[in-house]
Amino acid sequence: xxxxxxxxxxxxxxxxxxxxxxxxxxxxxxxxxxxxxxxxxxxxxxxxxxxxxxxxxxxxxxxxxxxxxxxxxxxxxxxxxxxxxxxxxxxxxxxxxxxxxxxxxxxxxxxxxxxxxxxxxxxxxxxxxxxxxxxxxxxxxxxxxxxxxxxxxxxxxxxxxxxxxxxxxxxxxxxxxxxxxxxxxxxxxxxxxxxxxxxxxxxxxxxxxxxxxxxxxxxxxxxxxxxxxxxxxxxxxxxxxxxxxxxxxxxxxxxxxxxxxxxxxxxxxxxxxxxxxxxxxxxxxxxxxxxxxxxxxxxxxxxxxxxxxxxxxxxxxxxxxxxxxxxxxxxxxxxxxxxxxxxxxxxxxxxxxxxxxxxxxxxxxxxxxxxxxxxxxxxxxxxxxxxxxxxxxxxxxxxxxxxxxxxxxxxxxxxxxxxxxxxxxxxxxxxxxxxxxxxxxxxxxxxxxxxxxxxxxxxxxxxxxxxxxxxxxxxxxxxxxxxxxxxxxxxxxxxxxxxxxxxxxxxxxxxxxxxxxxxxxxxxxxxxxxxxxxxxxxxxxxxxxxxxxxxxxxxxxxxxxxxxxxxxxxxxxxxxxxxxxxxxxxxxxxx
Length: 591
Fold this sequence. Notes:
Blueprint: E1 9-10, E2 30-31, H1 55-66, E3 96-97, E4 106-113, E5 124-134, E6 137-140, H2 150-153, E7 154-158, E8 173-175, E9 177-182, E10 196-200, E11 210-211, E12 225-230, E13 241-242, E14 246-251, H3 255-262, E15 271-274, E16 296-299, E17 302-309, E18 321-325, H4 326-337, E19 350-354, E20 359-363, E21 374-378, E22 382-388, E23 397-402, E24 408-414, E25 419-426, E26 434-439, E27 448-452, E28 458-461, E29 473-476, E30 482-486, E31 499-503, E32 508-512, E33 524-528, E34 536-541, E35 550-554, E36 560-563, E37 578-581, E38 587-590
Parallel strand pairs: 11-17
Antiparallel strand pairs: 1-13, 2-25, 3-14, 4-5, 4-7, 5-6, 6-10, 7-8, 9-10, 12-14, 12-16, 15-18, 16-17, 17-18, 19-20, 19-38, 20-21, 22-23, 23-24, 24-25, 26-27, 27-28, 28-29, 30-31, 31-32, 32-33, 34-35, 35-36, 36-37
């Protein structure tokens, strides 16, 4: 972005930083407290195994990454229409200097693998950009993630305007990576479906930015000005990247314009291009360039694109910068924002309680089966347990209702003390017909709470991200006609949390699609399951690990079935049921 000022560039061993190139070039928390009476004491949940690398290890990774010159996702793109093999080469030329205060969500992604040998010749080191979309979630490009072990070798820096070095973070914070996900259909050959999410080992304080919605078309109209941010190359004549965060304004281009230059390499609906045609030189060109890869393209404070690929050296006459189209992928990404679970992997797990002895159990998902149960001890005195993550710290929380008075408590793990804290979040909810933890239904990426009162009113409690809630908002009436209201995640693939409800009479099951503003669309019938078919229904998230919300249903005889989500926007939101076992009759709580 722009001409580098004296001293602003660093030549770091021919640094070439990624962007694939195409051939065209409400109560006080009490830490560790138990909320049951002594006669009804529930055991404290087990401590989750979830930790990050040491500060020393992170600095070592930074040192390796800073001296690296590798290309993330390096590939030969021989299938391009021009027919010449190229390598990934993602970049801002023609922009201006900005600060992380203006873009607090901007993230530096450093990958440093020293390979464990005495020589540095086999080291792998590279840099990508990213954006904080939740306290532990970074949105970036799949070519920055696929094939690399970010848990073992990644270092993520937030809160810094200056590019980090191995000795100075310039006021930023460095964090390790806990999990990684890239779009399952990402193609290194075509750079299609180029989107990914990194889950951090610890939450960061950086203010998140939201993604656009699946229904957004306005942001992609030709001529709409979008803002690009990054630390990438500022000139086509050297490989130096910027030590200071930069930004540029790029007009969105029509799909026909992009396809006119790139041909079949531009995949309509999956990609969007932006900028004015490059001039063939730095002068007159404003473009993403190497080092900006994975960074955000922003319209009206929402991410609409992720820097994906462009032409080599970024200024080829007539070229545009190409981005992954976020509106297409928000349905796939959202489940990764809300994917906490008991075993800290990509599969939602099942919590259950034995009806006779009140012992709680965890059964971890393996995708299409459940692992052997693990005891959580005695959980008498409660009649509801739900999994959620109200503070978005990537540790699974529990919402628990006390049977004696209906008080609802939020139990959450405090990693700094290694203990569990308990907080009252619902006073005297004994008569509530349903309590649901569906995720974010208000559109702010903070988990919310939904309940149905005895009169059938549906209430939404907007979460504040710290276990507390704003004033409740009525979202419907007549919900006492249902004998089950459930929800955890997005059932129709639009990136918005939904509800599932079953009629008392007849057993018709309806999908109520979330609108992302605390309201729900009219119900769409998706099944007919009377209480004699299934006497218990549970929603715990993505059990199968495919990025789509699933549903669990138990027969009166005790067979538990998994209904895997399809992500369909119609009525066929579940695939054929899959049995998870026949021994579940003994449990009176599934959550």
